[in-house]
Amino acid sequence: MKTVIGIVTDPVHPKLLTLLEEKGFKFDYLPDISKEELARVISNYNYIIIRGRTRLDREVLVNASNLSVIIRYGVGLDNIDLDYAKEKGIKVYNTPSAFTEAVAELTLGLIIGLLRNIGEAHRSLVNGKWEKKRFQGFELAGKTVAILGFGRIGRRVADLLMPFDVTILAYDIIPIPDSYIEKGVKPVESIEEAIEEADIITIHMPLTKETKDLINYELLKKAKKKPFIVNTARGKIVNHDDLIRALSEGLIRGAALDVFYEEPVKDERLLKMENVLLTPHIGAQTLEAREKAAYEVIKILKREFRENI
Ligand code: NAD
Prior knowledge:
Layout: E1 5-8, H1 14-22, E2 26-29, H2 35-41, E3 47-50, H3 58-61, E4 69-72, H4 82-87, E5 91-94, H5 100-115, H6 118-126, E6 144-148, H7 152-161, E7 167-171, H8 178-182, E8 186-187, H9 191-197, E9 200-203, H10 217-220, E10 228-231, H11 240-248, E11 254-257, H12 268-271, E12 276-278, H13 287-305
Helix pairs in contact: 1-13, 5-7
Bound molecules: nicotinamide-adenine-dinucleotide.
The site of nicotinamide-adenine-dinucleotide has 31 residues, from helix 5 and helix 7.
């Protein structure tokens, strides 16, 4: 029986390392390894577990003669040369479902935080002020929420929104599941229709060639109700300058963003705005999500190397 050995090349939750040990997977943990060093040693390993830091491009993968599995502990696969990995017969996995609940709950938090000015009210209070009148907000009940991208997270956001007595519009390039239509979710045919009707727009589609800059000034001009916009998906889906322009001109009332066009975000025009609520890409940062992702990694490894462990 062949001995399987892996390498973990980014800092990961301790739970993952404990589980790997408990389940008998051999691995080296080198969370600071340089690209050059990895390229030198990668041929020793059968699987690799990475997060966002490690770049598995052609220069590294060319030496990966024994590698059969790449696991991205997390979601984004943009740090992996997927075409080349495929060409070499290396399977690539990620752990997206582990983060659904965390991102959906943060989205709810951001929606309510934005409607009630929670961020700005906090800042005002800790700066010694008591500005009750300044912070008149809006209730979620009775509003129309457009969910753009109705996959795992979009659907979970819909579940969480339902008790709030809102109208939920769903836009996706694939059909909205009947089970959600039965629960009252209204599918819309076009993104324009969603933007026109919404009081709140929340984005849950992936970043692709088609979705980059999809939310831009021209589209936001179609909004009839001065909506709030929430983005916990990927920053580049919303054109940065257009968002600032739409916020400044009052086309949209406010924006809550967990993700940014450039991260970390440094643009003072955005950072200084009062009608924004900003978090540093913390969507997946819950203890539970990290643990669920660790279990998903183990499941993948067990499936891939069952006979060899
Ligand atoms: P998913 O694949 O389950 O759902 C994405 C949905 O978007 C799919 O239903 C797909 O058909 C739809 N879609 C794709 N292209 C579209 C388009 N052009 N127009 C409309 N809809 C389109 O993914 P998910 O697990 O729900 O995650 C959604 C996104 O959330 C991810 O792509 C990721 O970028 C982001 N995310 C962010 C964090 C964070 O930390 N903030 C964490 C996890 C995921």
